[in-house]
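Lecture 7, part B: from sequences to assemblies.

Below are the input chains for today's worked example.
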Amino acid sequence: MPPTDELSPAFEMRDVSKTFDGVAAVAGVSFNVAAGSTTVLIGPSGCGKSTLLRLMVGLLTPDRGEVRFGDAPITAANVTALRHRMGYVIQDGGLFPHLTARRNVSLMASHLGWSADRVTARTEELSALTQFPADGLDRFPTQLSGGQRQRVSLMRALMLDPDVLLMDEPLGALDPMIRADLQQELRDIFRTLGKTVVMVTHDLREARYFGDAIVLLRDGRLVQEGPFGSLVDEPAEAFVGDFVRAQQMAREGADA
Amino acid sequence: MKGSPRFAVLALALLLSLGAATALAQTAITTGSKAFTENVILGELLARLAADAGAVAEHKTQLGGTRILWNALQRGDIDAYVEYTGTLSQEILADSGATTEDEIRAALAAQGIVMTRPLGFNNTYALGMREDVAAEHGITAISDLRDHPDLDLGFTNEFMDRGDGWPALRDHYALPHKRVRGLDHDLAYRGIEQGAIAVTDLYSTDAEIRYYELRVLRDDLSLFPPYEAVVVYRSDLEHRAPEVATAFRRLEGRVPEAEMIGMNARARLARIPEGRVAADFLATTFQVDSVVVVDTWLQRLGRNTSAHLLLVLVALAAGIAIAVPTGIIASRHEVAGQIALGLTGILQTVPALALLVLMIPLVGINAPPAILALFLYSLLPMVRNTCDGIRSIPASTWESATALGLSSGARLRLVELPLAMPSILAGVKIAAVQLVGFATLGAFVGAGGYGQPILTGIRLDDFGLILEGALPAAGLALVTQGVFELGERGLVSKGLRLRPETG
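Predicted structure of the full complex, as structure tokens:
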């Protein structure tokens, strides 16, 4: 069930544009991310979905328009503090290779002055939640499998108990078996925690699996926004139907 | 107030001892010498005369070339050295047009430098022939060569190339010789000994003149300018240490050419230390006794090692302190990076010796110019490696650190520097190993180090002495390399040293 709209949105994109070297990566996009829901950004490569996510976490600033988090716009002055309320996970994990899994997870908390006991307790809690083996905590990223690295990355994102999780193709680099397992675990975790989640993917099945709401993008423009059913039943334009069919055919081809 | 009488006694004792120390305090005199044996002997002579006159004397030996000595004298880093009138008129005072002895003396006086009367010998370019060959042909002067166009002439390469060398000689004396070749200095002496060449160029006080029994041909048409040896000293000596100035003047006219050739021969050919040669001269000429201390091999090694390490470590520490922050800034700002790398790159292209000499007007001689030059040299590899190390951090890692909410300072400290550390350390290592080598040039400006025995060895053609500097320098470079490899274990995270596990 999509959550009710009583809560103010976690994110509000207001006519956001971002151009790189004269090419519009995102052009005049507006949508809201409802608090407590999972929103999936999807579209073909180069549609601007990752750029949107980077705008949300403040790695990029919009050329035009406004990105609002909670009830305030993200500015250079507040972005560092706001990031402590966001967890960010990227495709290859983005782990720091010079730190053990434990230090990757605790880096920010320790830097913010958490006590060692509190850090340890929280790390153990998260390692149980993500089913990360305790003996892996003192290993370095190169000593972990791809799936384990993503679990560490998720633990790191969750360490400060943020309001939202921003995930850029979190399962993209994993092989299909692990991916299926982790998909299920990830959805369970989202449900357990009840956090607002924004996830970028190029896989429609993944989008359907996770997404309370789906934002379909093409060439930097928002094509359609809504639950998966609405994309199938009420496509806003021909592209939506083409995109859905192409994904299904690709899957059938792969399954055959 | 029980303690006060005792305090008063103590204070009185202190005052008395201070007064005594002041009364006994001796004037410190530093003499210098150029990097060739004759001048080193003369520098020793000056130091010993100053000591005999009651000063605490030090001789900064073989300080590279004329420019270095002259700058050091003007700055007061040294008080006196022996110069040659030809060099004074043609190089140092070239702009003033002073040529005669009196003109030179006046021009120097205007710059606060006193020049003594000539010491008695003239070390100029000259031509030499084996005594028996010259006698056979009846040649005593250069113009006599005109009548013997079949003689083989062999000149040092430098003399062949210099405008005031062979070309000037040929034109001035209208020499008709066809068989003229350029060769190495040592080969020239051997060639003349074996009769392969009949005439060569030499300096008129070369030790080899006596050794090879050569006749120096008279410059009867006065082509070569006179290079009369004179002592130049700072005029403040006349007030600060008049007895030392007087002592220097005792050398006027007391070092005839034969005497100088003899001393050169003892030092260069018989390998007698210059200090001993100078002491013997003073004993016989002036009945002056002076102490000759000859260090053991181990003492020299210890002294050279500590001087060398001082140069390298101070320069490297300063280099790191400047280069790493510069590299960090360069990694963040494209334009700043290009400027920083461009400037440090230009510094690297300045020849080391030139850089060293350029530093002298700024900081004088001894360790400071060497440290400053080494510091400038150390910058490029460290700036570049710091910049490259930070720039090569994957964008995803950098974004993760930023998205985590680390401030830019914390991100630098906790993520960027640790990740760039292998590259930074590699840069520091390159710089350190380079500096160990470059620091041998410090000997040219009196900074000591392993360059000291190398310079002396080259000057005296003593391979053993060269090795005495070259081997420890090579050893130190290896040790430096090893130290950094160990340091890498301490400073680079294990996570970066692990190979990704396979399977």
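Note for the exam: The domain at 297-497 of chain B is CATH 1.10.3720.10 (MetI-like fold). Keep this in mind when comparing with the next example.
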